[in-house]
Amino acid sequence: MGSRFSLNSLAKWIALTLAACLLAGCSSMAYYAQSIQGHLALMHAARPIDDWLADPATPAELRPRLELARRLRAFASSELALPDNASYHRYADLKRSAAVWSVAAAPPDSLVLKTWCFPFVGCVGYRGYYDEKAARELAGQLQQQEGLEVSVYGVPAYSTLGWLNWAGGDPLLSTFIRYPEGELARMIFHELAHQVVYVDDDTMFNESYATAVERLGVARWLDTQAGEAARRDYAAFNARRGAFRALTLQTREELEKAYKKPPVTDQGAGGELAAKKEAMGRFRDRYAALKQGWADAGAPFDGYDRWVAQANNATFGVQAVYDELVPGFEALFVRCNGDWLRFHAAVADLARQPRDDRRRQLKEIAG
After folding, report:
1. What is the SS3 assignment for 180?
2. d(C-alpha 198, C-alpha 213), whole Å
3. Who contacts 153 (Cβ-Cβ below 8 Å, separation ≥6)?
4. Which of 16, 90, 201, 362 fits a disulfide with 123 by CB distance 3.0 to 4.6 angstroms?
5. Is the dihedral of CA 80, 83, 88, 94 positive or negative?
6. If you write DSSP's letter for every residue of 73-133 in order, what string do you get?
7. b or e along 157-168 (b: 16 or more beta carbons within 10 Å of the residue's beta carbon)?
8. How far apart are CA 351 and CA 199, in angstroms?
9. One pLDDT digit (tens) per residue for the chain, 367 residues
10. What is the residue-wise DSSP string for 155-168?
């Protein structure tokens, strides 16, 4: 089977996972079954990059993307001190828009995400499905039965944290391989970072660290390896993203303040917090102004329209997970004089501390 896992190893992995589920008191074996089946299908579809490049049937436009991904993969290990292992040396065409669909949920008066606990990875603020319909069914249940605000979003990639490198590792996927150069680099660097440091039960720490790695790593790649066109395109895209993130941060802060106050309700809005309604209205007005500014500058962009239309506590909560602690990690990188090995080691030291302590220290480092 070449670089693919053996059937004996596969059987052992399935047995171990199911046993762990039983020991953890899994409430729904069906969920874990779809997780195992979905990931195995993904791994089975993966072939070494060299095989794709040697195959005459490989689309012409895919070839340079695979070659770029291979260069990015080598750069990640040689320049960013990210793991040099089996991950991202293979490619899989999933023939769908996302690797998985995640469900996140939060109460109507809080940005704190509902968590689910799993074997091996601990508790996280989302639940993933390989079938979009199943994800939306769960979201409907959470709305109707628990009164939660929900978000269902496609995820282009995920990390197995290095645990399956013996079976071929995490592959490159059709869901992100055609991203612009800077964005493809971000994806690979982010997911590899999860294999360096990962803390059970602290999604915000894990995702903010990986986000810091992707931002710092892309800056290094663009400065030393990319052409002028790639740098220009990324700068334009990242400027829009930065403006939008600043807008959502401002709104998160306003919502958090609203939720700390005594519940002043507006009965005409069905009992919804008046301050919440006002904050969401300001958010959409500010976004409309931001979008108009892009258009006036000759660079119209509507890529955030769907996010804004569906924005609620769950979507803001998910974004906080990826952004909240990033300034602290970036400041820590500066403290380490840009030395990647020192930086990863410092993050590992933080990971060994209690959650509140490590978050407090990161915020202090960020000033």
Report:
1. coil
2. 13
3. 101, 102, 104, 315, 318
4. 201
5. negative
6. HHHHHHHH----SSTTSEEE--SSS-SEEEEEEE-TT--PPP-EEETTTEEES-EEESSHH
7. bbbbbbebeebb
8. 6
9. 233 334 444 444 444 454 444 444 445 678 888 888 899 899 999 999 999 999 999 999 999 999 999 999 999 999 999 999 999 999 999 999 999 999 999 999 999 999 998 776 678 899 999 999 999 999 999 999 999 999 999 999 999 998 888 888 999 999 999 999 999 999 999 999 999 999 988 999 999 999 999 999 999 999 999 999 999 999 999 999 999 999 999 999 999 999 987 655 544 444 457 899 999 999 999 999 999 999 999 999 999 999 999 999 999 999 999 999 999 999 999 999 999 999 999 999 999 999 999 999 999 999 8
10. ES----TTTTGGGT
Q: In the chain, which ranges are E strands?
A: 47-48, 90-92, 100-106, 116-118, 122-124, 127-129, 149-155, 172-173, 265-266, 272-273
Query: Which residue bears the tokens 């899989």?
Result: 92
pTM: 0.88
Q: Tokens standing for 332? A: 């820590």
